Amino acid sequence: MTTNDWKLLVFPDKEEMISARHQFHQAIQNVGSIGRSFLPEQPGDINANLDWDSKLQRLAGRWVDKDIHFRSSFSLSEFSVYLVDELFHPISSFPLQGKKQRGVMVWLEEQIEILGLKSNDLSLSLPYEIPEYPTAKREAFNIEGEAAGIEFEALFHNTDLLLRDIIADMEGASEVKCWPHHFDIASLITLVDTGDPETSKSINIGMSPGDDNYDEPYFYISPWPYPVEELPDISETGGFWHEHNWIGAILRSSDISHITSADEQHAAVQTFFTKGIPVLRKLMGN
Asked: Using CA atoms, how far apart are residues 253 and 272, in angstroms rounded to an integer?
C-alpha cells in the first residue's frame, strides 16, 4: 500500500456516524445471509463472512454457484445491496433508503428464484445476537446525508489495504475478512496452533466501526489468550490499552482526528500496527 491509496478521513458528526453504523450493521446481515443459506456450513460462520471488494468499493459476500456464479455485496456510500455476476456486472440492486427490512428480504427472495435457487432456503436466522435495531422490524432505513457512508467506505478501504500490506509476508496470518457479527474487518495472526482456538495463541488485528465499547470507529490489536501480567507501555504506538471485558491495544478515530493529511493519517495508523504487533508478540512469548 502506498500513501496515495489512503482515502482521507474527515471525521463526520459522531451522531450521524452512530446512526449510520447501526443501519449498516443491520443491512449487511442480508449480504451475509446468502453465503450462510446457500454454502456448506463452516466452523466460525466462515461461509457468511465478507471481503472488501476494492474494485467495486463494497463489502461483498462469498461466491455462490448455481445457474449463475454470483455474490451479494453492499455499498456503504450508495446505501444499496447488489447482486453481481462473475464479471462483476450487476444482476440487480436494491437501494435501502426509505425501505424496510422486509422489503429487502422480499427482493432477495425474488432474485434467488431467478438465479435458480429456492427462496425458501434463504434465511436471516443468525447464529449470534446483534443489537435489536429499529430497522430490524418496522422502521424504514434512513441515512441522513452522505458523509457517514463515505467515511465508513474510506475506513474499510483503508483498513483492508493496510492490513493486507502488513500481513503480506507474515506467517500464520489469515485473509482479511469482514465479519457480519461485529461488523469489524480483521486478520487473525496465529502464533501457536494447538488445533483448539481456546488454547491456541493468536493476535487479532483490525478495525471496528464502533460498538458498545466505543461509540466511534477504532483500530485494534488484541491478543489471545488475554495476558494476566502487567501490560507494557504502548505510548509509542499512539494507542492505549483497553482492559474492560477484553484486552487489546486501541487507536480511536478521535485520536487521529487532528490529522488532516492523508499521508499523515496513513502513517499514524501504520505506526500503530507496525509498532504494536511486536509489543504484543513479545507479551505472548513470541
From this structure: 12
Q: For residues 136 and 149, give the distance between their C-alpha atoms in angstroms, rounded to a whole number.
A: 19
- With 60 as the cut, is the pLDDT of residue 2 above it? no
Residue type, 68: I
Mean pLDDT of 129-138: 91
C-alpha cell at 4: 496515495
H/E run at residue 240:
strand 240-242
Per DSSP, the residues of 56-90 read TTEEE---EESSSEEEEEEETTTTEEEEEETT--E
Cβ(277)–Cβ(203) below 8 Å:
yes
In DSSP notation, 85-152 reads ETT--EEEEEE-TT--HHHHHHHHHHHHHHTTS-GGG-----SS-----GGGTTSPP---SSHHHHHH
pTM: 0.96
Grid coordinates of 109: 427472495
3-state SS assignment for residue 23: helix
Q: What is the C-alpha separation between 26 and 99, in angstroms, rounded?
A: 13
Residue 171 CB burial class (10 angstroms; 0-12, 13-18, ≥19): exposed
Phi, psi angle pair for 31, to nearest 5°: -65, -50
Segment 107-127, tens digit of pLDDT = 999 999 999 999 999 998 999
Residue 185 pairs in a beta bridge with 178, 207
What is 167-226 written as a DSSP string? HTT-TTBPPPEEETTTTEEEEEEEEE--S-TTTSEEEEEEEES--SS-SS-EEEEEEESP
